[in-house]
Amino acid sequence: MPDLNGYRVVAVHAHPDDEALFTGGTLADMARRGAEVTVITLTLGDEGEVIGGTYGNLVPAGLLGGLRARELEDSARALGVAVEMLGGAGFFRDSGMVGSPAHDDPRALVNRQDEAARLLRTRLACLRPHIVLTYGPDGGYGHPDHVAAHRITHAAAAPEQRVWWAIFDRESHRAGLEAVMAPRGWQKPDEAYFANFTTAGAAVTYPLDDASLAAKKAAMAAHPTQIWLADATVSVTNPRAAVAGVTDPGVVAGAYALSNLLVMPLLRAEHYQAGANCPPQATGLLDGLRP
Ligand SMILES: [Zn+2]
C-alpha cells in the first residue's frame, strides 16, 4: 500500500554494508510503501576485513573499495532504494582504526569532515528529506568513520530535517542471540563484544514484516565480502554453507556473521534513538510529519 507517497528519506552511512545491517529493513519497507529513499554512503570501506581468501589480497592492493562499490549498488537494488557515494565513488577514503596508517591519510574521511559536511548539506538541500537516518555520537560501535558520519550528518542537516540514530540495540541482540545456535566453526560473541554496542535503549522500534526481512537479507547477501548469512546459502567468498539453529523464529529471522565469524541474530525489528530535531515523545520515525 503506497501510504508513504510524498515522504522523503535519506540514510547516511559510513561504509557499504551498513545500509543493510543497520537500516535495510526500514528502508526497504518505506520504499515499498511509496517513500523516496536515498542511501548516501561516505566511504567505500577500503580498509575493511573480508571473508575468506578469494578477495583477501584486494585490501593490501588497495582495490577492495571498487568491489564494495559494486556490492553497495547490488544492495541498494535489493532494497529498492537510490544510492549515492558522497563526492562520487572513492572521493573519501575509509579512515581505518585509530593508530593505523589509513587514519592519517589526508584522503581519509576523518581528516576531511568539514568538506564532507558541506557536500552533504548540498545533497540534503537537493533531496529535501523529512528524516535522515545515521548513527549516534559513538557511531554505534566506535569506528572512526561511523563517528564522523554522525558529526557530518548533524552539521549538514537543516533544522526541519529530523535526524534519527540507527542502533544495534544491545538488549534486543542479547535476547536474539539466546534464540540462535551458532553454525559449526562459528562462535557466540562474549559480553565484551556486546559492550561494543555502546548505545542502549531505543525510542523507536521499527518492526520488519516478511517482505522487509526478505529485502534486508537480499541486501546483506549482496555484500559477500563482508556478511555471511547462516541460511545454508553459499557465495563467492563462503563456498561452505553455514546453518544456524533458531530455537525461537518469532524472535529472530535467522543469523549471520561478519569476517570475525561471531554469530549475530537477524532481528525482526530495527531500532532508533532520537537525534536532532525529533519530537521527544515520537514512537515512529515519521510521526506528525506531512508528505
Ligand atoms: Zn561501517
From TrEMBL:
The keyword Zinc applies. It comes from Corynebacterium phocae. GO terms for molecular function: hydrolase activity, acting on carbon-nitrogen (but not peptide) bonds, in linear amides. GO terms for biological process: glycoside metabolic process. This is 1D-myo-inositol 2-acetamido-2-deoxy-alpha-D-glucopyranoside deacetylase. Transmembrane segments: none annotated. It comes from the Bacteria. Keywords: Zinc. Coiled coil: none annotated.
